[in-house]
Amino acid sequence: QVQLVESGGGLVQPGGSLRLSCAASGSIFTTSTMAWHRQAPGNLRDLVATITSGGSTTYSDSAKGRFTISRDNAKNTVWLQMNSLKPEDTAVYYCNARDLRTWDSYWGQGTQVTVSS
């Protein structure tokens, strides 16, 4: 049974920082590409950043230069460091794991990030 549990969301002022965490249970972490997505009210779920098991990363244009995705395969954990936050970053952030052996995809329950003064 694969479970992804996000934490670290909250309310932050514009220009502030937050660090999201996603802890994975099960045996898929080291064979999975991990990603963070976000969904604002009324919008589709958008990809924010990805990281392969080897540490290669990609970012959306809105995340480049402000967000950093990282992972620790020994701890089965992936993080999203978010700096210089803007009100438009307000969304529910979801952790995703794509097991490259089976192509199965798993999602966490989401964590709310609100950027507001």
Question: How does this structure look, described?
Answer:
By secondary structure, the chain is mainly beta. It contains no helices and eleven strands. It has strands at about 5, 10, 20-25, 30-40, 45-50, 55-60, 65-70, 75-80, 90-100, 105, 110-115. Strands 2, 4, 5, 6, 9, 10 and 11 form a seven-stranded mixed beta sheet that branches. A hairpin with a 5-residue loop joins strand 5 and strand 6. It starts with a strand and ends with a strand. The model has no long low-confidence stretch (mean pLDDT about 95).
Shape estimate: globular
Helix share, percent: under 10%
pLDDT averaged residue by residue = 96
Computed over alpha carbons, the radius of gyration is 13 Å
**Range of strand content:** over 45%
**What is the structural class?**
mainly beta
Number of E-state strands = 11
List low-pLDDT spans. Answer: none
Distance between the termini: 40 Å
Q: How many distinct helices? A: 0
The helix/strand series, from N terminus to C terminus, equals EEEEEEEEEEE
Q: Describe the biggest sheet?
A: 7 strands, mixed
